[in-house]
């Protein structure tokens, strides 16, 4: 495992002796958490990449002893998490928090802090970064790692070892001795090639999979940041993209294969955003002889035939496309900057290249009319998509969409509440959500497209069918 270059050891050349538990908090639902999103994932769970990346950096770059406790994948209760923390006897617990379950996550972490008052608790995530001071004021957390957490945590450990004030560490927020709160400015990581590859030996890889790809799924975040400005999207690390080199991406894929991964999911907001980089990365994968199925996220306006051909040759078997809507008026309000007339033509290029298509949709905006939804439904049914994933639009604080409809929303950070004042909005959204799923999946053409997947995964197919019928 290689070490990062921008994370410095203690001044006397020795690392501080510290044990850290990196916690994916328990929840009654199977929740996937990342910095930028959290969602209910009842049957297929991707690995906790953010936690694995941070834990590996803390060990390789700062010499900490680390434990990754994925309470979601292990199906642990809060009591079982307490048992693990008690047995591990860590100096510190660091957790990632979800977004729409933020209140539940914080309540759980406050209870854990109460059970272990001598253990330092830190958090990172979308809301802790965007509402740092308020989170610290209304919780018992000791510190926040703001936005990209690797350098702040390394600086935190180094400051402790050298007896320096934490107020000197960029990207850290915490409490002074008098109880007052300080919030330090963030700093972007400019060279992602120097971050150690996540150590999948810290978790049971067999617990993670992508839908119909099989178990033992690894994940790679090849770029941080997104140049697009969709109004509904929780911003990640900013609009400036920092990208790993194609050589590093290929090396990380090889590392995952050595760790036992049998498929890979790229977590980049838009894997095809930089066309030449994507082609160069595919060429590097082919040059190294890497053979593993992988999937990624994309947009219809960032793909073309040549690009898709290179991706297929490099092992890409599935592209997740953010379509959101086929209604021009809705796309305009989302600032998607996509002409709906090109969507299915671009999807046909993916089909012709030999890759699966998963379309992602957003329904339930207060400004979405019946006619708008009808356009979306018609476009989806006429498309060559294999699968769809529908989401009900949620007004996350800090997004442009939230500001646009703030008069329609009741929002409170802790205790957390973010909901439309008019309950009929949610009712209509749920009806459209159900209708889109049922109309798309209950067609003979979808059955025949997925016949071999259904044969290979009959139990999962039945489970998904029952979910659609709820």
Distance from first to last alpha carbon: 46 Å
Sketch the major β-sheet. 7 strands, mixed
Give the total of beta strands: 21
User: Which radius of gyration do the C-alpha atoms yield?
Assistant: 22 Å
**Class from helix and strand fractions:** alpha/beta
Name the average pLDDT: 92
For the record, the count of structural domains works out to 2
CATH domain topology of the largest domain = TIM Barrel
Helix content: 25-40%
Placed side by side, the strands forming the largest sheet appear as 4-1-5-6-7-8-9
CATH uppermost class of the largest domain:
Alpha Beta
Parts with pLDDT < 50 across at least 5 consecutive residues: 1-15
Structure description:
With 470 residues, the chain is α/β, with parallel strands linked by helices. The chain has 2 domains: 19-183, Response regulator (Rossmann fold); 208-469, TIM Barrel (Alpha-Beta Barrel), CATH 3.20.20. The chain has helices at 49-62, 78-88, 102-115, 126-130, 132-137, 150-162, 246-258, 275-287, 305-313, 328-333, 343-353, 370-382, 400-404, 423-441, 444-449, 451-456, 458-469, and strands at residues 19-24, 31-33, 38-40, 65-70, 92-96, 120-124, 143-145, 172-175, 181-183, 209-210, 214-215, 217-220, 223-224, 242-243, 263-266, 294-298, 316-324, 356-363, 387-392, 409-412, 417-420. The strands form 6 sheets. The chain has a 7-stranded mixed beta sheet with strand order 4-1-5-6-7-8-9, sandwiched between helices. Strands 12-15-16-17-18-19 form a 6-stranded parallel beta sheet. Residues 1-15 have low confidence and may be disordered.
């Amino acid at each position: 495992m290689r070490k990062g270059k921008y994370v410095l050891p203690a001044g006397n050349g020795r690392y501080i002796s510290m044990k850290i538990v990196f916690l994916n908090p328990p929840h009654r639902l199977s929740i996937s958490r990342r910095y930028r999103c959290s969602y209910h994932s009842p049957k297929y769970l991707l690995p906790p990449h953010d936690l694995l990346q941070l834990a590996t950096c803390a060990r390789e770059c700062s010499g900490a002893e680390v434990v990754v406790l994925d309470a979601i994948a292990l199906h642990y209760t809060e009591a079982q998490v307490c048992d693990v923390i008690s047995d591990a006897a860590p100096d510190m617990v660091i957790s990632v928090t979800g977004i729409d379950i933020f209140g539940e996550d914080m309540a759980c972490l406050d209870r854990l802090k109460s059970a272990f008052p001598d253990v330092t608790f830190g958090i990172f995530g979308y809301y802790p970064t965007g509402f740092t001071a308020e989170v610290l004021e209304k919780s018992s957390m000791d510190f926040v790692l703001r936005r990209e957490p690797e350098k702040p945590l390394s600086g935190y450990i180094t400051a402790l070892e050298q007896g320096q004030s934490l107020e000197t560490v960029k990207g850290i927020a915490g409490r002074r001795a008098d109880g007052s709160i300080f919030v330090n400015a963030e700093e972007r990581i400019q060279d992602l090639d120097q971050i150690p590859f996540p150590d999948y030996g810290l978790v049971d890889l067999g617990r993670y999979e992508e839908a119909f790809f099989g178990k033992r799924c690894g994940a790679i975040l090849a770029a941080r940041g997104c140049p697009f400005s969709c109004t509904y999207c929780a911003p990640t690390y900013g609009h400036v993209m920092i990208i790993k080199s194609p050589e590093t991406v290929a090396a990380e894929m090889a590392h995952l294969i050595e760790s036992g991964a049998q498929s890979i999911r790229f977590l980049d907001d838009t894997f095809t955003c930089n066309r030449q980089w994507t082609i160069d990365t595919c060429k590097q994968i082919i040059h190294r002889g890497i053979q593993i199925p992988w999937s990624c996220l994309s947009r219809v306006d960032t793909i073309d035939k040549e690009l898709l051909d290179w991706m297929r040759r490099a092992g890409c078997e599935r592209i997740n496309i953010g379509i959101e809507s086929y209604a021009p008026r809705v796309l305009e309000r989302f600032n998607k900057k996509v002409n709906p007339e090109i969507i299915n033509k671009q999807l046909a290029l993916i089909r012709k290249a030999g890759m699966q298509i998963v379309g992602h949709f957003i329904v339930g905006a207060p400004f979405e009319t019946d006619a708008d939804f009808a356009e979306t439904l018609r476009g989806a049914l006429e498309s060559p998509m294999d699968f769809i994933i529908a989401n009900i639009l949620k007004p996350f604080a800090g997004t442009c969409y939230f500001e646009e409809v703030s008069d329609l929303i009741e929002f409170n950070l802790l205790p957390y509440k973010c909901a439309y004042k008019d309950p009929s909005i949610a009712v209509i959204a749920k009806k459209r959500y159900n209708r889109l799923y049922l109309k798309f999946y209950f067609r003979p053409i979808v059955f025949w497209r997925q016949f071999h997947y259904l044969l290979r995964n009959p139990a999962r197919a039945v489970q998904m069918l029952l979910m659609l019928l709820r």
